[in-house]
Amino acid sequence: MDKSHFQMMAGYGAWANQHLIAASRAVSSNDYFLDRGSFFGSIHGTLNHIIVGDRIWLGRITGEDSGLTDLAAHLFDTLNGVAAARESEDVRIQGIIDDMDEADFSGSLTYRTIVNPATIKTPMSQVLTHMFNHATHHRGQVHTLLSQASITPPSLDLIVYLRELDTRAHE
Fold this sequence. Notes:
two-stranded antiparallel sheet
């Protein structure tokens, strides 16, 4: 996979996150924080976890320790805190991908795992694919949690994002 693929995924992730945050704003505070039995409990807990995952992987990629050792770390107390951090992380992800050379995508990353600590070496294209897939997986959980809170969740399909890009390019 080449740089343009990962740039597309970074753009898609930012777009999907913006839509989820906007939908989350329509939920009552009680519903937003309600533990609905998902892996990270609530909409808030799951949105927090997506940021935790991104920060851990970006720290590994950049060589800057994220300081995170708990995948369920509670980083923010409010939706506004999550929203501001999410926007910042999405800009950071896009910048890191943009700054990578084509050769970086065919290289490898050596890092230490958090769960069952071990040193692992993984091709960078697989690391990035996992990072984007991880976020998509948990956004899907938030999508379901929004439905459980009686909010019609936004369409987060990649193809919808790509069609929007194509429409904007032809305006």
